[in-house]
Inverse folding.
């Protein structure tokens, strides 16, 4: 095993369902004395925020900072070209931007001289030729305790599974396996039972930026003393719209709530709804929670999916308990509160005709 011989180690050992981990942060010993020329690879809001933090260190540990990102793509009803968030941030920071060619990075050459590549939510596999162009290789920020949750959606999968904590990792970029590089830096992040994706992402932005700077300040020793990933590999594949379809007959209240925590603010959790003459309306449950005892009092629902409006929320009977929905979005309409839904759709509707049901998955 390769160990952190030349680094001072601060470790915290935590018990997790999947085992025990020791987390390392790098001390200020052996700081990088020569400012670094950094080429940043990114795309989304997480990478944009990390880029912003690195830019604040330009003139300090960072001498030169440029950005590689996906090309503009048509978006929205009008199919107008739109830039990814990291490109917008780079323009705001007046940084040079290089777009990925249509054919990807195979055969692509690094545009100039750089010491290290920094990769955050980039979305492209980086070939060995590109990695080897950097004297200090490439490093990657990934929000999980690798090798758990390799892939595109680690935060979402952690929330769906009801994990009590995740990790934020800085690793080397592997030319063979996505998210399979050596671990250079890790830090745990606790997850409250009701925390949602956007709040976790905000915390990851802050912690991850700290980790990237910590590694860059000690880049030589950090790369030399990286740790091979050990443990079970768990994949965290990209979340599709279909993942948000609630399966009322099969999912528990906790599973539905965790699904909403993970993707309710992005992809959305959806259901079909029958309400009087309105049949099979496709709806997003925008705001929901597990029903309180006060909300459930005197609510009599017989079958899974049966619903009732009470005290400003829609209460729905699930497999094992009830959930309360305070905001709803009917496809093709504007988002409305449960009270607005009651006024517009539930008046004159028999209770037996108000029901949520699952959309078939082919």
């Amino acid at each position: 095993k390769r160990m952190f011989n030349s680094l001072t180690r601060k470790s915290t050992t935590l018990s997790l369902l999947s085992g025990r981990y020791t987390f390392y942060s790098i001390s200020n010993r052996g700081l990088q004395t020569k400012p670094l020329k950094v080429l940043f690879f990114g795309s989304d809001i997480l990478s944009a925020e990390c880029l912003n933090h690195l830019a604040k260190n330009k003139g300090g540990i960072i001498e030169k900072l440029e950005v590689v990102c996906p090309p503009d793509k048509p978006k929205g009803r009008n199919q107008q070209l739109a830039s990814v968030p990291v490109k917008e941030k780079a323009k705001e920071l007046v940084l040079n931007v290089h777009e990925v060619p249509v054919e990807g990075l195979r055969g692509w050459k690094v545009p100039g001289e750089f010491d290290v590549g920094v990769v955050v939510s980039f979305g492209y596999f980086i070939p060995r030729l590109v990695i080897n162009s950097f004297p200090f290789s490439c490093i990657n920020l990934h929000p999980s305790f690798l090798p758990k949750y390799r892939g595109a959606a680690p935060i979402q999968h952690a929330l769906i599974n009801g994990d009590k904590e995740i990790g934020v990792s800085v690793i080397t970029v592997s030319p063979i396996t996505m998210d399979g590089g050596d671990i250079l830096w890790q830090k745990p992040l606790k997850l409250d039972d009701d925390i949602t994706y956007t709040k976790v992402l905000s915390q990851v932005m802050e912690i991850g930026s700290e980790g990237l700077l910590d590694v860059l300040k000690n880049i030589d020793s950090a790369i030399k003393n990286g740790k091979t990933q050990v443990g079970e590999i768990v994949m965290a594949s990209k979340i599709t719209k279909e993942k948000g379809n609630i399966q009322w007959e099969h999912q528990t209240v906790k599973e539905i709530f965790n699904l909403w925590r993970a993707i309710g603010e992005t992809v959305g959790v959806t259901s079909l709804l029958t309400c009087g003459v309105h049949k099979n309306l496709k709806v997003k449950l925008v705001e929901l929670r597990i029903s309180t005892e006060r909300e459930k009092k005197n609510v009599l629902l017989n079958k899974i999916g049966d619903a009732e409006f009470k005290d400003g929320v829609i209460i729905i009977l699930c497999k094992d308990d009830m959930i309360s929905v305070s905001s709803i979005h009917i496809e093709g309409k504007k988002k409305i509160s449960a009270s607005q839904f009651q006024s517009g759709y539930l008046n004159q509707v028999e209770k037996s005709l108000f029901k949520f049901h699952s959309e078939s998955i082919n």
Notes: Residues 1-23 have pLDDT under 50 and may be disordered. The CA atoms of residues 43 and 123 lie 8 Å apart. The radius of gyration is 24 Å. The first strand starts at residue 9 and ends at 16.
